[in-house]
Amino acid sequence: MTQNNGQEGNAGGLVITRIFDASRERVWKYWTDSEQYMCWGSPKDFTTPYAKFDLRIGGKYINCMRGPDGKDYWSTGVYREIIEPSRLVYSDSFADEHAKVVPASHYGMTANMPLEMEVNVVLEDIGGKTRMTLEHCGFTDDEMNEKTRQGWNECFDKLAECLR
Fold it and tell me: 35-82: per-residue pLDDT in tens?
């Protein structure tokens, strides 16, 4: 069971808070282990056929979301802060399948989206459950911000299912 404790916007970003009925260590594993991430790392009706994480400061990740039409959307980034099991900060960029950063327009999205954004994840233990706060920063377009909020929320719905 998850609860949506709040969604708010901020200048150029979004904040989503959820409570998961799982330990902080278990939620951390689903964020940091590529096999676990593939269970939930894409919105509703999408799959995550590939994810590879080099979980260390300066390490890179690459993952792929596959749409219901079979189109692949790749993303990559660099881990900037890792405090196990409570905090994860990384850059976030669209990419090609070789982890080369590409503009959002590569996937038919708005051209004014920045090449790099930042994701901050904080996990707090609240009596055997986990409060997760995600902040995704760097948006220049309100529509993309809202689409990303929807996508994250659909991912977190899947994460709740995977954690059962």
Answer: 999 999 999 999 999 999 999 999 999 999 999 999 999 999 999 999
Q: Which pTM value belongs to this model?
A: 0.90
22 — phi, psi (to 5°)?
-160, 160
Count CA atoms closer than 13 A to 55's CA, side-chain side: 17
CATH number at residue 93: 3.30.530.20
- What whole-number distance in Å separates Cα of residue 74 and Cα of residue 21? 30
> Which residues have C-beta within 8 Å of that of residue 139, sequence separation ≥ 6?
12, 13, 14, 113, 114, 117, 145, 148
Domain of 58 in residue numbering reads as 2-162
Total of domains in the chain: 1
Interval 114-141: pLDDT, tens? 999 999 999 999 999 999 999 999 888 7
* CA–CA distance, 136 with 99 (Å, rounded to integer): 20
